[in-house]
Structure formats: C-alpha cells, structure tokens
C-alpha cells in the first residue's frame, strides 16, 4: 500500500459526508437519525458530517418503505453520488416494508430492489447507536483502500 | 499589548482546555442494559402454544419452527419491531428481552390469551368438518367419526341435532383449523387478549 493510499484512508476515515433521504417513512427513524446529530450521540465527533447534498455525499441513508413517488427519483439520486459510495437502509421499512407492506398499500419495499444497499439496520426504529455503528462499519469496509479494491 | 497576548496564550495553553479541544468525546456507543432488544431465547423449552405469533403486531416477525426434537421461536430481523409482546404473552417464559420479564414479575402483570368460538346457526350445515379437523378433539376422542358425532362429553364441540354444539370452549388452542375446514364459514374463532394485573405485596411501584 502506497503512502498516498495510507493518507487517503486516514483522511476518509475521519471525513464521511452523509446525505439522508426519506422515501416514505413514518418519521420515527428520522427522529433517531436526528438524535445522532444531537449532543448525546454527536455524530460529528467521528468526523461524519450530515448535509443533504448527494453530490458531496459518501454515504446515503435511506429511510422509509419506498413509495411510488420515488420511482424515478431515488435511482438518479444514487447516480449523482460520486464514488466511493454506500447506501445504508435504516429501520424495518426499507428492509421489509414493516407495517406498511400489506395488500392495497402503495409502497414497494425492499429498497435494495432499486439501489444497491451496503448495510441494513433493522429495528422500528433502530437505536442511534446502531445507526452510528452501521455508518462506522460501512466506512471501514467500503472506503478503506477503495482505489486498490477497484483495480 | 504584551500583557494581553500573555493572558491570551495562558488561557489557551491550559492543559484541560487543550485536552478537551483535541480529545473531546461524548458517551461511548453502548446499549443500556434496560434496552428492549430483539427477543432472545432464555433456554426454557417451547411448548408450542403459539401465543407469541398470535400477539405479534408486526407482519412476519416471529414464527415457531420444529428444530431437532422441539419447537423453537424464530425472530426475523427487519420485521420485528421489538415491542416485547411475544415475551409477555409466552406462558412458559421462552423468550426474554430487556427488563420485560423482570417488570412483569415485579408488577404482577400478564397477558392472557383466550378463545371464543362462535357458530352461525343459519350457515352451519352440521357436516362435522370442524369437529373432525380439530386437533384437540382428536386427542380427546380418538373414535371421532367423519360425521362429527361423539359420545364423549369432554370434546370441545360435536354435532348434535344437525348442528355443531360447543361444549368446552376453554380447551380451544386457537389454531383456527376449524375455520379453514368449514365449507360455509359458519364457525369463527375470536382470539381474545387481555392484560391482567395481580395485586403485589406492598402495592407495587
């Protein structure tokens, strides 16, 4: 591993930009993501910065059961994120649809049908610690040595 | 000017300030002990009462499968919402989650599952399908014939006078096999869940 790669790994591990997108949730998971930003869990102490610009993001957090309004929006949004990138599904909804996935409802879970999902955090809603741990583990798996792995 | 600079540097070179600035950390990512996580087995044997499945509000979150020589509840992550109702409803304490079992014991609460059998006399043809399909009936009276007639008074229900008569509603286990075997949808099983609380010594918390 070259020194340049080592520097990149070091920098990337402390500089994760997160963009989150709610594709039709009940807001329960949004509140938990919000709790990550608050001082108690303080996501920024790990160098994770949340702002909702996919062009600057490394990690896309997907919340919700995928309503049909996102049909032509979520995939282009995923395309806009520059490599290396990873999507994390937060909560039961993007994994299984949870209580919304029943006959006659206008949702289309799981989200992994529509964009590649790197990690899933089950729970209704998941704890902020679980969300944080997912982001941190994805960071180590996806972003470390990314140029080496791509070759 | 010099004094000002001196005080300025003095203020910022304080060791605790430097430590706070460079090594600031909030509480570590630990899950508190009281957190109600996904239900876990306690090691007690599952008796296949299936109350966990009946009480579960989430779709496809729990099922009970035959494994080895016994039954075993399986929790499906991604479906389970960690409400802890299966832990409370289980009569044998097979599952545990957070402090649910301790709280139930301390407060003397329990979830009671009971079943009510209702038969629509207008629709019932007296075919006896429900009587012969019922697994509890079959255990009590092995001689139960195809017509649903029985001389045994201990069965849950039997055909008398061309209609199904319910004798022992309390023995019903809520499997609803009679419902699916009925050709006219005349029989309905209502699953009734009630929370009860026993008075505890000292009045509880």
CATH class of the largest domain in chain B: Alpha Beta
Give the rounded overall mean pLDDT of chain A.
Answer: 88
Share of residues in helices of chain B: 25-40%
Biggest β-sheet: strands ordered side by side in the sheet of chain B:
1-4
Number of helices of chain B: 8
Poorly predicted tracts of residues of chain A: none
Record keyword descriptors for this entry:
heterodimer, A: 151 residues, Rossmann fold, 15% strand, B: 205 residues, alpha+beta, Alpha-Beta Plaits, 2 domains, two-stranded antiparallel ribbon, 8 strands
Task: Describe the protein.
The complex is a heterodimer of chains A (151) and B (205). Chain A has 151 residues and is of the alpha/beta class. Chain A has one domain (3-150): Rossmann fold (3-Layer(aba) Sandwich). Helix content of chain A is 35%, strand content 15%. Chain A has helices at residues 3-13, 28-37, 74-80, 93-96, 128-143, 146-150, and strands spanning 16-22, 48-50, 59-63, 86-90, 119-121. Chain A has a 5-stranded parallel beta sheet with strand order 2-1-3-4-5. In chain A, α3 (74-80) links the parallel β3 and β4 (86-90). In chain A, α2 crosses α5. Chain B has 205 residues and is α+β, with helices and mostly antiparallel strands. Chain B folds into 2 domains: 40-109, Alpha-Beta Plaits (2-Layer Sandwich); 117-190, Alpha-Beta Plaits (2-Layer Sandwich). In chain B, strands 1-4 form a two-stranded antiparallel sheet. A two-stranded antiparallel sheet of chain B has the order 2-3. In chain B, a hairpin with a 2-residue loop joins β2 and β3 (70-75). Chain B is rod-shaped. Chain B starts with a helix and ends in an 8-residue tail after the last strand. In chain B, 23% of the residues are buried. The chains are: A alpha/beta (151), B alpha+beta (205).
């Amino acid at each position: 591993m070259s020194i340049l790669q080592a520097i990149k790994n070091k920098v990337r591990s402390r500089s994760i930009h997160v963009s989150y997108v709610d594709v039709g949730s009940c807001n329960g998971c949004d509140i938990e993501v919000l709790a990550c930003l608050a001082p108690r869990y303080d996501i920024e102490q790990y160098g994770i910065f949340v702002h909702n610009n996919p062009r600057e993001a490394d990690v896309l957090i997907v919340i919700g059961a995928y309503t049909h309004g996102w049909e032509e929006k979520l995939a282009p949004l995923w395309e806009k994120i520059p490599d290396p990138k990873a999507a994390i599904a937060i909560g039961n909804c993007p994994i299984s649809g949870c209580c919304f996935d029943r006959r006659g409802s206008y949702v289309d879970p799981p989200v992994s049908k529509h964009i590649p999902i790197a990690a899933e955090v089950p729970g209704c809603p998941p704890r902020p610690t679980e969300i944080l741990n997912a982001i941190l583990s994805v960071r180590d798996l996806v972003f470390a040595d990314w140029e080496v792995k791509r070759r | 000017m010099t004094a000002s600079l001196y005080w300025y540097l003095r203020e910022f070179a304080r060791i605790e300030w430097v430590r706070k600035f460079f090594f600031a950390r909030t509480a570590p990512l630990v899950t508190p002990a009281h957190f109600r996580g996904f239900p876990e087995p306690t090691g007690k044997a599952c008796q296949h009462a299936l109350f966990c499945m009946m009480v579960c509000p989430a779709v496809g979150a729990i099922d009970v499968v035959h494994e080895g020589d016994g039954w075993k509840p399986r929790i499906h992550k991604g479906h389970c919402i960690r409400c802890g109702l299966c832990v409370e409803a289980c009569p044998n304490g097979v599952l545990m989650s957070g402090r649910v079992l301790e709280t139930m014991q301390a407060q003397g609460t329990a979830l009671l599952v009971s079943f009510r059998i209702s038969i629509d006399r207008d629709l019932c043809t007296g075919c006896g399908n429900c009587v012969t399909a019922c697994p509890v009936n079959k255990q009590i009276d092995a001689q139960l014939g195809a017509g649903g007639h029985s001389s045994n008074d201990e069965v849950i229900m039997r055909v008398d006078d061309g209609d199904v008569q319910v004798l022992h509603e309390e023995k019903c286990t809520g499997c609803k096999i009679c419902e699916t075997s009925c050709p006219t949808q005349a029989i309905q099983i209502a699953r009734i869940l009630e929370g009860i609380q026993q008075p505890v010594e000292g009045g509880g918390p």
